[in-house]
Input
Amino acid sequence: MEREKLDEDGSLKSLKRIPGRGEDCLNKILLRTEGLVVLASSIYFYFNLEFRWPALVILLLAPDLSALGYVKNNKVGSVLYNLFHTYSVPIAIIICSVAIHSHISLMIGLLWAAHIGMDRMFGFGLKYPTKFQDTHLNRI
Output
């Protein structure tokens, strides 16, 4: 993929896109920072609501059990993993739990969002059906 840029004298010159540099690097920083913010805010609200440590320890890594779908095959694994690693579901749970005043659901939604934020902070993204290592953020 080629991009065009103005040279100092005003003429156009082509630059080849180098993965991991420039805009790509900024995108990775932004996505990891976003993950950190989601993790930190979820944990903040979790303890602000006076939920306890044992549930945090047990449930924070629970969404990774979805990777067991890879035992079947890559397609099933990626679909199951992505279902448990998208913000849509925990946000819906958080909204519903606030609406119906369900503390258990709120705790689960916050920890689920915290887990996804933690994964994004470390550079783990949604999976492609090719291999477990192929994600929307980078190759792990």
